[in-house]
Amino acid sequence: MTVLEEAAELAAAGRPFVLATVVWRRAPTSGKPGAKAIVFPDGTVRGWIGGACAQPTLVRQAREVLAAGEPRLVFLGPADDMDGVLRDGVMRVPMACDSEGSLEIYLEPVLPRPHVLVVGDSELTATLAALVTDLGWEASSTDEAGFRADANTAVVVATQGRWDEAAVQDALSTGAAYVGLVASRRRAVAVVDWLRSAGVPDTVLARLHVPAGLDLGAVAHEEIAVSVLAELVALRATGAFRWSGDAAVPAALEATDPVCGMTVEVEQARQTSEWNGNTVYFCAASCKHTFDADPDKFD
After folding, report:
1. How far is CA 144 from CA 118, 195, 229, 253, in A?
2. What is the per-residue pLDDT for 100?
3. CA angle 250-106-258, nearest 5°?
4. How far apart are CA 259 and CA 104, in angstroms?
5. Of residues 6 and 96, which shows the higher confidence score?
6. Domains in the chain, ordered, with CATH?
7. Mean pLDDT throughout 83-92?
């Protein structure tokens, strides 16, 4: 399977990653224009874009790209290669390893699409789910309790009075980025009063958007669905429904190569030396050789 084929499968499965592509090189370097790699949130790299010096920097930059949700063009190479090469908007990362040459790598984040979970079973719920899909987001529907939702999900309750209270209570117990109730204002007040009497704190009730959707003065179910989707699009523009990372993935322990100044992941480092009671980590054998020849020079 090629890197692009795997990337397509990952994107379809909703898994976050960064697609790294070499777009420029200056020899000597093992990276070639068009070379690609996938970088996962835990720092795992699949594919090949450059040598030992490039990979730790690639991983660190990729993690930042995932957090920001914005692509980035990164220049890796000696500082004296930067003049006349870079354009506005390029991230500069000096790399002093003589054998590594220079690279420009385009980092493109691929994040899960926003997910809208519609609770209920009616023409409105079917219309809203169809509109969400047409927008390119993920949509699912349920008319049963016990559903789950995360920070990339908006839950829209449209149960038409059949089990509004229980459905909203279930939705508010999840980590959903949005919980909305499609109801008249009078019905909305009754649902909120019931939830408050059931012990739902006001701080939790403050998460509830009710009535759901922008006030377009709409009455037909198609127009109500449009108003709800319009509210979700407006919220996304403010930063909602974005992948926020996996808190369970620890940050990699890093050290600085004293010869070239590159960042080295301690766990992955293959070149090390002991000096003055400490372990020194290197990005490549050439840096270790330089250090071992005259360690006092780098003290």
Report:
1. 11, 19, 22, 45
2. 58
3. 55
4. 22
5. 6
6. 3-110 (no CATH), 115-237 (3.40.50.720), 254-298 (no CATH)
7. 66
